[in-house]
C-alpha cells in the first residue's frame, strides 16, 4: 500500500483548545510576540520541540505502574540498564534526569581549560557544558552539509580530514571525540555508519575515546538502513548495535528517541571514568541506581527503547516530515533539504526576502504561523544567534523556522492543517512585516526577548 499510516490506534486523547485569530492576536500582544511566553493550551498545533513531548504507549503506562521506587537497587533500574545494554552494550549505564546532566558529568571529568572537544556539530547544551569547564567545542561538519540545497544523503557526517588534521596538530589537548546522531543543530541530518566507524578509527589511532551523543539514534539507524549501500536488508537493532560497537561511551536524552517525557543517561566502558562519574552523580543527581529519576521513569524509558527501534514506527516517523516538506516545496515554500528526522526547517530568509535579517524574518514567519493558524514553531536564526557577547548584533548565517514533530502525537490531518496554514500565508507573504526587539537579556535572548512589529 502507498499510504503510510500512523502505526497505532488512539486510546487516550487530549482535547485541543481551539482559539480564534482575534484571540491569538491579543495573546501575541500580551507576550510581546515571543512564542515562548504563550501558555501551551493557547496553541492548536505545538511544533516548538520534539523533546519530552512524545505520546507514551499503553505498554509504557503499564510499565510506569510497575515502577519500583526503592532508593537503592530497584528492579526498575536493572530493567532500564538491560534495555539500554540490549542496544548499546556499554559496561556502565548511569541514569540522569536529562541529557544535559549526562553531559555536565562527563565534561566535569574530561573537560578543562585549554582542552578541545571536536564533534560533527555540538548541540547547544553540549557546547555549553564543554565551554563551562573552560574547554572549547569545535564543529567539524562535512562541507557539503553546509549547503541547504545539497541533497547529500548524510549531511550530518564529520569532515574526517578536518578531524585528522586537528588530532595531528593538537591531540594533546583533545580528551574525547564526539559525534551527534542525528545532527540536531544541523537540521536533524543523519551520519552514515561508514562515517561513524571512520571517525572512531581516527580517534582510536590517536588513543582518544570516541563518544556518541545518541539522542536520535533510532532515526539515524533508519536513515542508514534506507540510504547507505548494503544496509537495506538489516534489522534496525543490528544497525544500532553497529553504531555503538565502535564507541567508548555515549550521552543520551531519553526525551528524544526513548519515547519518555524525562530522563537521560551516560554510558561508557572505562572503569575509572565511570567511578568518577558516579561520584559526581551522587553529588548532583542521586544514587547510581536512579540518577535523577523515579523508578517509574526508568520503566517508561526501558519500554520506550524497545518500541523506538520498530521499523513501522520509524518509516512513519520519517515519512511524516517528508510529507510536510514535499507539500511545502510544492507551494513554493523553501525548506532545508533533504528533510531531517525530527523536523522540517523552513528557510524564512528566502520565503520573506523583503524582510532583512536584522528585522528577523524567522520571527516574523513564526509569529504569523501562530496568528493565522495557532501553530507554534521555533525561530532558529538571527534572534537565536545574532546577539554578540559585547551586546552588538549581526545577522546569523541562516534564518530558519523549525517545525519539530512530537513523536506519535499528531495525525495526518494535523499535518494537512499545518500545510494549509502555509498555503494561506504564501498568498499574503508580501504583507508580512519584520520586528524590532524592545527588551532583551544579555544572553540566550530568544527565550525572553520582547518584540514590536514594524509599521
Ligand atoms: C536535546 C538534546 C540534548 C540535551 O538533552 P536534554 O534532555 O534536553 O538535556 C543533547 N544533545 C542533543 C543532540 C539533543 O537533541
Each distinct ligand: pyridoxal-5'-phosphate
Biggest beta-sheet profile? 5 strands, mixed
Counting DSSP E segments of at least 2 residues, the number of strands comes to: 14
* Rg, Cα atoms, Å: 22 Å
CATH-defined superfamily of the largest domain: Type I PLP-dependent aspartate aminotransferase-like (Major domain)
User: Which CATH architecture of the largest domain?
Assistant: 3-Layer(aba) Sandwich
**DSSP summary: helix tally:** 16
Strand-residue fraction? Answer: 5-15%
Structural features, described:
By secondary structure, this protein is an alpha/beta fold. It has 2 domains: 21-50 and 311-453, Aspartate Aminotransferase, domain 1, CATH 3.90.1150; 58-307, Aspartate Aminotransferase, domain 2 (3-Layer(aba) Sandwich), CATH 3.40.640. Helix content is 40%, strand content 13%. It contains 16 helices and 14 strands. It has helices at residues 21-30, 58-65, 75-87, 99-110, 124-131, 160-170, 193-205, 217-227, 236-245, 271-284, 295-308, 311-330, 348-351, 361-373, 382-385, 412-427, and strands at residues 45-46, 92-96, 116-119, 136-139, 177-180, 210-213, 249-253, 264-268, 343-347, 375-376, 378-380, 400-404, 435-439, 450-453. The strands form 5 sheets. Strands 2-8-7-6-5 form a 5-stranded mixed beta sheet, with helices on both faces. Strands 9-12-11 form a 3-stranded antiparallel beta sheet. Strands 1-10 form a two-stranded parallel sheet. Strand 3, helix 5 and strand 4 (136-139) form a beta-alpha-beta unit. The chain binds pyridoxal-5'-phosphate (PLP). The site of pyridoxal-5'-phosphate (PLP) has 15 residues, from helix 4 and helix 5.
